[in-house]
Amino acid sequence: MALTNELVSLSLRPELDPGPEQHRTPLSEMEVEMFARRLLQESDGAPLWVFAYGSLIWKPDFDAVEWQRGAARGWHRSFCLKMTRWRGSRAQPGLMMALDRGGRCNGILFRLADDDRLGQIRRLIRREVGTIEDAATVRWIPVKTAQGYVRALVFWAGPKGERVSRRLPLETVARVLARACGHMGSCAEYLYLTVNHLEERGIRDRNLWRLQELVAAELLSIHGLNEVTQSR
């Protein structure tokens, strides 16, 4: 990988949490409970699989008893969501990754433990959704595995709204990711961890692989370095 841990460290800086966005409505505990119970009912007692394509691969918030590779046809990874919190700021907005329509996305399927399934769904909703406006980004999709198709829960699929910027050139995305940082870390760090953990699982996303090369080049340029200096 061209994007190294040393380069990623250059993208990190202390940032204060600006707090929830004023125009977005946090889910109440009652709404979280209703949402979780609806998803539990929709699982219909079958094994509950979650399709992970980004941070859930390297920072899951559930108890998985099994994992396998899977392919979501008709979807692809896309840094298409503008964010001013978490890994971005109001002064330097970042881009968050979601699943957008078209193509194919290879990722990891995790099967949740049957014990306290409702509690685990609650944890996923609190982590991945958070607001009423984002509830529509949760859906069930078919994912192909070596044994056939499974029905899996996926978060941040087909996002809509004023924050969505589709079909951005990779060069534009790279410029944003190399500069954006929030109180939870930088966008470059997110990209690095995602690509690194996909590689560990035997998955290489062509666009992300090219993107990490572009972000590495941006960081070298921002900090007045070159590849020879970085390799020492």
Structure write-up:
By secondary structure, the chain is of the alpha+beta class. It has a single domain (6-223), classed as Hypothetical upf0131 protein ytfp. Helices cover 36% and strands 26% of the residues. It is built from eight helices and seven strands, in the order ααβαββαββαββααα. The protein has helices at residues 5-11, 29-43, 55-58, 117-128, 170-179, 187-200, 206-222, 227-231, and strands at residues 49-52, 64-83, 94-112, 139-145, 148-154, 181-182, 185-186. A five-stranded mixed sheet has the order 2-3-1-5-4. Strands 6-7 form a two-stranded antiparallel ribbon. Helix 1 runs antiparallel to helix 6 (187-200) and helix 5 packs across helix 7 (206-222). The longest helix is centred in the C-terminal third of the chain and has 17 residues, at 206-222. It starts with a helix and ends with a helix. This is glutathione-specific gamma-glutamylcyclotransferase. Its EC number is 4.3.2.7. It comes from Rhizobium lentis. GO terms for molecular function: glutathione specific gamma-glutamylcyclotransferase activity. It is an enzyme of class 4 (lyase).
List keywords for this structure.
single chain; 232 residues; alpha+beta; Hypothetical upf0131 protein ytfp; 5-stranded mixed β-sheet; 7 strands; 26% strand; globular; lyase; GGCT-like_sf; GGCT-like; glutathione specific gamma-glutamylcyclotransferase activity
